[in-house]
Design goal:
Elements: H1 5-8, E1 12-14, H2 29-40, E2 45-47, E3 64-66, H3 75-84
Antiparallel strand pairs: 1-3, 2-3
């Protein structure tokens, strides 16, 4: 596992806080599908909090961290990108965001 954000260059997170139907995050089919894929691909993941804000406090909304570098030379990066995006670059899930960490 990478030790720091600057070492990994990114953190890939999916965050369902803006989901339109306000369902419980644990019941969302997209989240279940993503976590099943992570488990099947041996991509270690863990629950994580949303990005910090000086003006707003958010409760946990289903976001997870995966330790995959944002590096186009990395095979794991391409595997994750191919899962989240269709070949034309559109996102596979409407209620999932993949966010890059700033070191």
């Amino acid at each position: 596992m990478h030790e720091s954000c600057s070492e990994t260059c990114s953190i890939s997170i999916f965050d369902l806080a803006d989901r339109p139907n306000f369902k419980d995050y644990a019941e969302l089919d997209s989240r279940k599908c993503v976590l099943q894929w992570f488990d099947a691909q041996y991509a270690p993941w863990r629950e994580c909090r949303p990005y910090a804000s000086e003006t707003v406090t958010h409760s946990y909304a289903g976001a997870v961290f995966i330790d995959v570098p944002f590096d186009e030379g990395d095979a794991e990066y391409w595997k994750v990108q191919a899962f989240f995006e269709y070949p034309d670059g559109t996102m596979r899930f409407d209620d999932v965001q993949v966010l890059r960490c700033a070191p």
